[in-house]
Write a structure and sequence with these properties.
The protein has about 90 residues and is of the alpha+beta class. About 50% of the residues lie in helices and about 20% in strands.
């Protein structure tokens, strides 16, 4: 696998994880700048509680004033990417 294929595989597995475990979010393709937005499907402050995922750095962020649940979801997602997806893909390359 080359670098692009590795990143594509990590992103694919992340999107599967979000769809399976966080059905309350919809995946918004963003503006083609390497970022994907996870937007809550319902709620008054959807934009404030959105999560940004960077497709090449594989990190997630949300606004400082986002809800506690959003911060917890970011922590869960980042932990999964860092501890499950990236090590698995790295292991497959050996």
């Amino acid at each position: 696998m080359n670098k692009t294929e590795i990143k594509r595989q990590i992103n694919y597995r992340f999107y599967q994880y979000v769809n399976d475990n966080f059905p309350e979010y919809e995946i918004d393709g963003g503006e083609g700048n390497g970022r994907i937005y996870l937007v809550p499907k319902e709620g008054d402050s959807r934009n404030d509680n959105s999560i940004e995922y960077h497709q090449s750095r594989h990190d997630l962020v949300c606004l400082n004033y986002a809800s506690k649940k959003t911060h917890e979801d970011v922590a869960k997602m980042q932990s999964y990417v860092s501890n499950n997806i990236i090590p698995f893909i790295t292991l497959c390359l050996k």
